[in-house]
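Extended Data, panel c. Modelled sequence:
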Amino acid sequence: MVFAGLEAGGVYWARRRSVADTQPTVVQVSTVFGRNPEYWTLLIPGSGEHHMPDEFDIIEEIPFPASAPIRQAAE
């Protein structure tokens, strides 16, 4: 399963599978289409583009400092 080890809202380094020698990009696991993992997509932050998880190879999670919480734009 593509989502093994991924967390909703998690941010990861990933590489697009369809493009040879592509540079890693940042993706975020989005639950905009539903909280169940079968509805999750990968969002490219700042672009509004949602992609199917099988379009990317996840490289690793990007950790955030505990003292700097992420704020949503609507807050």
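The radius of gyration is 13 Å. This feature is highlighted in the accompanying rendering.
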